[in-house]
Structure formats: C-alpha cells, structure tokens
Automatic annotation (TrEMBL):
MF-aspect GO terms: acyltransferase activity, transferring groups other than amino-acyl groups
CDD domains cross-referenced by the UniProt entry: NAT_SF
Gene3D superfamilies in alphabetical order: 3.40.630.30
Keywords: Transferase
Source organism of the structure: Nocardioides antri
Lineage: Bacteria, Bacillati, Actinomycetota, Actinomycetes, Propionibacteriales
Secretion signal span: none
Pfam families in UniProt: Acetyltransf_CG
Protein name: N-acetyltransferase
Transmembrane regions: none
Keyword hit for Transferase: yes
Domain of life: Bacteria
N-acetyltransferase domain sequence ranges: 1-94, 7-94
Coiled-coil region list: none
Amino acid sequence: MTDTQVSNNVERNRFEIHAEDGRMAGFTEYVAGEGVRDFVHTVVKDEFEGQGIGSKLARAALDQTRADGLKVKATCPFIKGWIGKHPDYEDLLA
C-alpha cells in the first residue's frame, strides 16, 4: 500500500488512516485536554498489518498535534513506543 490518507475525526476523537480505496485501515484515539492530546488506543486492522500503517498514522497524528500547538500524553503503548524510536518527537511529550 502506497497511498494512504490520515484525517482527524474530531467528532470521534481519533485520527483515522484510510487506504487509497477508501477503507479505514486503522485509527488512534485520543482524549483532548487543556493544551494536551492524550493518545489512549491505536488499532491497525489485521489486513493492513506489516505495511507501515501504524507508523504513518503515528507520524501524521503527531505532526498534526504539533501543528495544533498541543503537547502529547502517550498513554497508548504503541504511540509511546513510536515516540521512543523517533527522538525528534520527544519534545511533544507533556
């Protein structure tokens, strides 16, 4: 899979990643707080495992969080681990 699109579904408090055919490949849920976005749970659907979907989703969600001027609380083990592997995102941690 090469083309994916990540969007912030504000109504559901989650970033969603969709495949080029429109199918939702995964999402990361967050709780919005005062100046902080707490990422609490990330899911990549089984049929999309091993394609880098989780990484694309994490990067896009964190980039948007930075652009929104918010800090990150990484309650979700996946997001916490991803930030740990990408030190250039550690400045986002609240």
